Amino acid sequence: MTMTAFDALNSVSQIVSAGDKDYSYIFKPEGTVFNPPLMYFYTDPIDGFFNLFIVESGPTDPAYLPDWLSEAFQVICNQQVNVLLLREVQEWAYEMLKIFKNLCQMRAALWWWLMFNPYQQPFNTLRVLTEWYLTAFTGVFPVLVGIDIGPTIGLALLGNGVDVLGRLAFTMPYLPTEGKVYSPENFATIDNPDLAEMLTEYGRTVRVFRQFPELWNKYPIPNSLREEWYTNKPEITEYLIKNYYSQNIDFLPDRLLKELYEKGNTVTDSLSVSFNSLESLSTNLVCWAHNLVPIDFIHVNF
């Protein structure tokens, strides 16, 4: 005798043999292990310090947030999202959602076993934890052969949600559509020889996010982030000013911009530009107008 059990997580049918496995398998279904897409960060003299690539070919096909959702999330978090911390939260949410899915499967199985009273412990606790979700789909879909398929569809949707969450790849500080897919056949077309060589040795299809993130053109870089770079990682600030000098973006912290502006006013009164606010003060304009910050500004003591 065989029994077919539907695993909503993988969307495949599994054959359960009564001779090989007992009925406990029905109440304790197996799940997949959290195995998110592989992600690698790299720094490079050409591409800078914020680059990453995500492996597209492999046992786990990456899923990405929509651009609008990724942008909103980064703006709400002041563009200082820690991807590693986010991955830990993702794993926790994945495991919790997988446990809830297994509980729902157990509750659905108990509907077919009339010998268990769902209002007695421990089954009553299981009913309270899961029935609010399963009954939400009751009566929504047509009844087939006298069976309400709503809870089954609910389990399938829950399993699909677990699957997507496990495959989700975060691309901060980039938007998902900024990535460009490269396969081993076209690695030679990459304009960075060192990156092309590294990916050729890796030998797998990847989605590469590199150079300057689009959001930093659209929104000001937070002062706390600029302060962190200037204080603890001055090579990042130096790289940004050297390579993106003409984009009219502030890379220095506000306190330094204010100091430069005040020093500039003591040197000359010929500056005719009116700064309405500290946030609109341009690093590039200060550097050009007053010539106070040389390229190796990180070695200058103000």
Architecture overview:
There is one protein chain. The chain is of the alpha+beta class. It has three domains: 2-30 and 91-167, no CATH class; 39-81 and 170-209, no CATH class; 222-299, no CATH class. It contains eleven helices and eight strands. It has helices at 24-27, 67-76, 83-110, 123-134, 150-167, 193-202, 215-218, 223-232, 234-243, 254-267, 283-290, and strands spanning 2-7, 12-17, 39-44, 48-55, 143-144, 147-148, 180-182, 206-209. It has a four-stranded antiparallel sheet. It has a two-stranded antiparallel ribbon with strand order 1-2. A hairpin with a 3-residue loop joins β3 and β4. α3 crosses α4 (123-134), α3 runs antiparallel to α5 and α8 crosses α9. The longest helix is centred in the first third of the chain and has 28 residues, at 83-110. The protein is elongated.
Secondary structure topology:
Blueprint (H helix, E strand, L loop, with lengths): L1 E6 L4 E6 L6 H4 L11 E6 L3 E8 L11 H10 L6 H28 L12 H12 L8 E2 L2 E2 L1 H18 L12 E3 L10 H10 L3 E4 L5 H4 L4 H10 L1 H10 L10 H14 L15 H8 L12
Antiparallel strand pairs: 1-2, 3-4, 4-8, 5-6, 7-8
Helix pairs in contact: 3-4, 3-5, 8-9, 10-11
